[in-house]
Amino acid sequence: MAAAVAPVVWGTTYLVTTQFLPPGRPMTASVLRAVPAGLLLLALAPGIPPAGWRLKTYALAMLNIGAFFPLLFLAAYRLPGGLAAVVGSLQPLVIAALSLLLGWGRAAPKQVAWAVAAAVGVSVTTLTGAGGVDALGLTAAILGTVSMACGILLTRRWGVPPGTHPLTSTAWQLLLGGATIAPLVPFVDHGAWHLSVSSVLGYAWLSVVGGAVAYSLWFRGARSLPATNVALLGLLSPLTAAALGWVVLSQELSPLQCAGFALALAGSLAGQLKGQPAAGPRGRDASSPVHS
Fold this sequence. Notes:
Layout: H1 5-10, H2 13-20, H3 26-44, H4 54-66, H5 68-78, H6 83-88, H7 91-102, H8 109-126, H9 135-158, H10 166-181, H11 185-188, H12 197-224, H13 227-233, H14 236-247, H15 255-270
Helix pairs in contact: 2-12, 3-10, 3-12, 4-9, 4-10, 5-9, 7-9, 7-13, 8-15, 9-12, 10-12
């Protein structure tokens, strides 16, 4: 399915960042990933959100981009090994819990079981067991996971404003989120700023493919697929990163890690199979389209 392209593309971020971009500038990368992509999509589908939807658009922008990107990079820089990826792999379970808590339906037990299996697989694949756990980094990883989970749930529940092209909605989320991150650049980024052919190519990949293309597909999937399915697809991102590290960077995977990789991939794919989720309080199940 098209939505699976997005997390696979995002799984290239670590490789592109370490091999092509200037070091020590995570917020710069976040802004250049979001803002040019938003401008490109806005040029393809011009327009502004209707008056009644602007607060919703801003809320989605903060959850999916403005808060998630800084938390993601903070966790990646402060946590050992693949712990950030492990925390992120719990997102399907967070979505299932939030859906039940808010009365928006509940995931099928089979999906929850596959989510647990996939989380275990990601843990086995990415954890290195090196070093202690940084409290700030762990907090950032947890908050980032919750932020993205809330963004997926609300994107699905709210849908797109009537008469508005989906690309327009995605464009404004990227623009507003990027504008929120921009003031963090002088406070967080400390690496030397220089552009080379490789860094230009890296930023272009993050913005055009990882931003405009990937987020368009991701938000379309978030609006049409059950929220737990979308979150399970997100597990393809750390798996792609691990596979690229193995193939491109010659990072070895132990037999146990290979088994974890297979378990996580099986869980993320099997979780997409249609089941019969239990109905919510108004007879609406967790896999039914929601509009407001």
